[in-house]
Design goal:
single chain; mainly alpha; 4 helices; elongated; ATPase_NBD; Actin, cytoskeletal 3; Actin; Actin_CS
């Protein structure tokens, strides 16, 4: 909180909202991402990963 307050203009009020379901937000975001039609081309199969290793992720996603 100190870092945010230090970066904000002096007149700004800084508030941090932590929703109770925050521990699930990563899973919810992943679910939304996986449901996008445009994301299918970036999926890595087990076979691809076993053949190319971690470099396949960079090849398909970046």
């Amino acid at each position: 909180m100190k870092e945010l307050t230090a970066m904000a203009p002096p007149a700004a009020t800084v508030r941090v909202v932590a929703p109770p379901e925050r521990k699930y937000l990563v899973w919810i975001g992943g679910s939304v991402l996986a449901s996008l039609a445009s994301f299918g081309s970036q999926w890595v199969t087990r076979e691809e990963y076993e053949e190319y290793g971690p470099s396949i992720v960079h090849r398909k996603c970046f």
